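Bit of a strange request maybe. I'm writing a small parser for structure token strings and I need a real example to test against, not something I typed by hand. Could someone generate the tokens for this chain?
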Amino acid sequence: MKILVVAATQRELEPGLKLFQEVETGTHSVSFHSTGVGLTAAAIAITRLTLQHSPDLIIQAGIAGCFQEQLSIGDVVFIQSDRQADLGVWENDQWKNVHDLSLINSNEFPYTNEQLINPYLPAFDFMQLPQVMAVSVNQITTSQQTINYWTNQRPAPAIESMEGAALHESCLRLNVPFLQLRSVSNYIGERNKAHWNIPLAIDRLNQTLIRLLQQLPHQSLSLPTPQQP
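Reply from user aminoacidic:
Good idea to test on real output. This should exercise your parser:
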């Protein structure tokens, strides 16, 4: 299996690359790539890498902010679904996304009920990681109004990143199996970095990533047939 591991920044991947060179991961071909920060950079990089390498699986690994205190700093999760959280408009103190504005149908491919759902995730249940919803942003959330909006959604997202939705949409459109692996570095709100723990999040992320790569050769993965647009 040809696997691409991608992250926004090299810092998020460096421990995993070092560990990968030291452990046995079976017969898979694995390469590590940084895409750059943000949805646009990630989408372009993931598309380019897919066309160049024709991977069997893309794993996006990264740290993230968390809306829910049920998750602890350093916890690692799989992202079940993602969406572009700030693609729309605030109007009369109400948030309207592109689906509310009738610019994109809520179930128009690759969306399902406004979500970019990962159909391949059930094949990786052997990792026994929490599977949560996420949102992706261009502007990191600090406003209490925005926090309240997302935490009041049902179901509510747990994780916020700046690249996740780009992975989901790009891979769904390109028919490439994918995983989004995130570790919690901070809770979303005031940017008080005294309460963050980026080193712990990166360490836990990479330990989990390597465990995933080690277990893949020993699992019989039944991946669904990619959906056609």
